């Protein structure tokens, strides 16, 4: 049976930041489940960078069914975790079931990939203190407040934690995450 990877997300997640790792990790041979606050059809968004805007714009994105709810997740059944960005992390960080899942992955030192606003989740459970990370650049103060050393670069790997700024950094992000996976959680 192939090793399993969990993606945790919710409505208003960035479409590309969910779908790219979902497809890329399946291509590597992993089974991938998407968990959300409840089993439902999730509504993702597209964040884009357009001339004349001070920040990204947001448009409706893909819809995709959640495989299971956070309450149904057994972290022990997964070898790694992916945390997409978008607006979803802003409200997901308050979910007690998700906080338990995140803590279990970090306590077991399993590989974790986070991108964009995803580090808001790992900051909320106090797992970034003393670590090097990147995130969407506007989150630099949040990362510093969480005790992390923020680096404005495509991808930062700190042990089993691999972080990236946003979807334009996908190739570097997944390349580095797969290196960690091949060492710590190879496909069975």
Automatic annotation (TrEMBL):
CDD domains: GATase1_PfpI_1 (cd03169). InterPro entries: C56_PfpI-like (IPR006286), Class_I_gatase-like (IPR029062), DJ-1/PfpI (IPR002818). It comes from the Bacteria. Residues 4-179 form the DJ-1/PfpI domain. NCBIfam families: PfpI. Belongs to the peptidase C56 family. This is DJ-1/PfpI family protein.
């Amino acid at each position: 049976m192939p090793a399993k990877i969990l993606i945790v997300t919710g409505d208003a997640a960035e479409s590309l930041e969910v779908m790219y790792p979902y497809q890329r990790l399946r291509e590597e041979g992993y089974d991938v489940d998407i968990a959300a606050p409840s089993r439902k059809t999730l509504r993702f968004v597209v964040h884009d960078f357009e001339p004349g805007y001070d920040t990204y714009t947001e448009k409706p994105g893909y819809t995709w069914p959640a495989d299971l709810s956070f309450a149904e997740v057994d972290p022990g059944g997964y070898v790694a975790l992916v945390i997409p960005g978008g607006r979803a992390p802003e409200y997901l960080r308050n979910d007690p079931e998700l906080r338990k899942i995140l803590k279990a992955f970090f306590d077991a030192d399993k590989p974790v990939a986070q991108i964009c606003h995803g580090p808001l989740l790992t900051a909320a459970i106090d797992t970034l203190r003393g670590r090097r990370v990147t995130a969407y650049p506007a989150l630099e103060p949040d990362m510093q407040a969480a005790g992390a050393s923020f680096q404005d670069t495509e991808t930062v790997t700190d042990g089993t934690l691999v972080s990236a700024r946003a979807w334009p950094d996908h190739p570097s992000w997944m390349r580095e995450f797969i290196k960690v996976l091949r060492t710590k959680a190879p496909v069975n």
